[in-house]
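> call design_seq(struct)
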């Protein structure tokens, strides 16, 4: 029977199924075939006589049915799973310790073809994207999540409407491919890397997040499934997102043992088979050039920790901006500013407007590593005792401020200040250029009780607390309105970086800076307030002017309002110091002070961000 090696994994041919795997020199290798549900292999086929090119060996087997058979490999003395397996069976419920029987976990076949309904879906540009990042299990496991099939892809589908109503345009999934989640037990090398086998005396922990090299990167995680058909269930999730007008993005973590060619195979597979719209590549050994220059991925979002766009594109602007930088630079700048640290204005100006022509920027104030946004304003110190490492794990410095009391409190003044600070934080995020990312539950004040490294907390601490959605409705509504406001004004999410000059001869620059005097904004190290004015005409949609007064000082400050064109007036839109009442509704500027002919200023309270809109007054 003719065999044409070169494509790892299983390929269906007109002669049967071709199996291809990499075998180290000098090792004996066998293909193990099992009947579905049976404990032992029913057939062992030697790979020694197979067709070989390099270290890849292929054999073709006829007379097998994908519904009736499963398979593994034995290389040397180790039974392993195919690194290219598209489906795993026998992994058991999430967090269950793996059996020492190496034949329990097996590789399956892609059994049927999914009929996609998303032919007309078009992903958003990076400038128009609002990312919502979550972990499949943690997001719906809590008892008040109002999801029937908790912790699964199907359960996650029930939250799509919620995310769409919030204003998110893309769902970013923490590792949702099959990975080994039990840490501290004996490894059988089942993930296709026998060298990872070890014996540990430490108590077993559950790796909820999946940032590990022990993974089957081609297989949707079976324990995240409500059915026994992971391929179909994940396909339906992506299809449902697309029908709702949302993108599906995925995170992949590599530990340095995966070659660039295999990474390409992985991304190609998820792109072609599951219609995934983008990938966040994490870990080590990631060759950006190979991925960025790949023709198939040229319009697929690709996020890396650091990106040198000038080097990647050799000084040329790409036809489509799909590559973005994803790191903590924005987070630390904005957290410092939020807690009134000095000498932050220049960095704030840089981070707020940063939008390189070659690549995008992913901005966030919370991610899986570190405090949630609620904990950022509730704790000065990490509280990771429940992780079993005597509070030694996790980041030592969180750039946080507890607003006067450590942890949960019933003090009204502290709670009000925390709410105000969270509103400030979301405006710092959503009024910046680049692509904003919101971490699961932050929009309604989800807390992990001060744990800044909840990777092993498969419990109420690590799960998103949907009780907070009920108790923090004011914050949720504020975030929802802030997202809508960002979307309405194109000047707040431009395709290119704002220039700060009047390059269209409109009489105003696209972006200008102001302080106690209009058109003059000192940035001395002791200052913590700054005004920004946007000329909406540069956005070519909404023509109004926007003035954002950032006062992150503990004292009130006056902001001079620049003069507007004839017939236009300033109106308040929102102030984070308001404790109750509607937000993002226009009100007359009643508190404006006259400062000479035609000059006005407004006093902005301490730790407050205020937005004003300048528009023609209607009769």
């Amino acid at each position: 029977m003719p065999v044409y090696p070169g494509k790892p994994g299983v390929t269906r041919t007109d002669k049967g199924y071709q199996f291809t795997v990499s075998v180290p020199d000098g090792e004996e290798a066998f293909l193990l075939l099992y009947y579905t549900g049976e404990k032992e292999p029913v057939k062992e086929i030697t790979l020694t006589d197979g067709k070989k090119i390099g270290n890849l060996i292929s054999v073709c087997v006829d007379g097998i049915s994908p519904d009736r058979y499963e398979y593994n490999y034995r290389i040397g003395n180790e039974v392993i799973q195919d690194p290219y397996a598209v489906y795993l069976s026998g992994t058991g419920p999430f967090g269950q310790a793996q059996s020492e029987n190496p034949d329990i976990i097996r590789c399956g076949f892609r059994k049927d073809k999914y009929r996609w309904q998303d032919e007309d879906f078009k992903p958003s540009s990076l400038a128009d994207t609002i990312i919502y990042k979550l972990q499949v299990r943690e997001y719906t496991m809590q008892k008040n999540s109002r999801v029937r099939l908790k912790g699964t892809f199907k359960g996650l589908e029930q939250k799509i409407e919620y995310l769409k109503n919030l204003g998110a345009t893309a769902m970013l999934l923490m590792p949702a491919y099959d990975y080994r989640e039990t840490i501290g037990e004996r490894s059988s090398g089942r993930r296709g890397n026998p060298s990872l086998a070890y014996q540990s005396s430490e108590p077993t922990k559950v790796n909820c997040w999946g940032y590990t090299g022990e993974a089957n990167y081609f297989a949707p995680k079976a324990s995240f499934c409500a059915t026994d058909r992971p391929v179909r269930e994940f396909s339906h999730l992506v299809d449902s997102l697309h029908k709702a007008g949302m993108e599906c993005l995925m995170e992949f973590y590599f530990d340095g043992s995966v070659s660039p060619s295999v990474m390409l195979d992985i991304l190609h597979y998820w792109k072609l088979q599951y219609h995934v719209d983008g990938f966040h590549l994490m870990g080590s050994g990631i060759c950006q050039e190979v991925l960025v220059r790949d023709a198939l991925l040229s319009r697929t979002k690709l996020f890396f920790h650091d990106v040198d766009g000038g080097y990647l594109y050799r000084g040329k602007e790409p036809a489509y901006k799909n590559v973005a930088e994803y790191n903590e630079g924005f987070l630390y700048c904005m957290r410092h500013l939020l807690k009134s640290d000095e000498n932050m204005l220049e960095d704030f100006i840089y981070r707020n407007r940063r939008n390189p022509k070659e690549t995008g920027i992913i901005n966030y104030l919370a991610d899986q590593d570190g405090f949630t946004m609620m904990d950022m304003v509730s704790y000065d110190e990490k509280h990771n005792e429940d992780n079993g490492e005597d509070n030694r794990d996790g980041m030592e410095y969180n750039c946080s401020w507890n607003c006067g009391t450590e942890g949960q409190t019933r003090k009204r003044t502290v709670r009000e200040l925390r709410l105000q600070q969270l509103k400030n934080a979301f405006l710092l995020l959503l009024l910046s250029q680049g692509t904003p990312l919101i971490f699961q539950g932050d929009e309604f004040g989800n807390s992990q009780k001060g744990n800044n490294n909840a990777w092993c907390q498969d419990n109420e601490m690590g799960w998103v607390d949907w009780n907070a959605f009920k108790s923090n409705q004011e914050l949720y509504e504020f975030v929802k309105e802030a997202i809508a406001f960002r979307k309405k004004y194109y000047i707040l999410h431009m395709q290119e970086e704002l220039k700060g000059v009047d390059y269209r001869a409109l009489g105003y620059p696209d972006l200008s800076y102001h302080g106690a005097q209009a058109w003059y904004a000192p940035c001395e190290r002791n200052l913590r307030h700054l005004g920004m004015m946007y000329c909406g005409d540069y956005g070519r949609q909404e023509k109004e002017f926007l003035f954002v007064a950032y006062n992150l000082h503990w004292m009130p400050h006056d902001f001079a309002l620049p003069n507007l064109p004839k017939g236009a007036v300033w109106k308040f839109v929102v102030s984070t110091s308001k404790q109750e009442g509607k937000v993002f509704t226009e009100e007359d500027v009643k508190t404006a002070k006259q400062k000479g002919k035609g000059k006005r200023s407004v006093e902005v309270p301490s730790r407050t961000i205020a937005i004003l809109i300048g528009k023609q007054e209607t009769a």
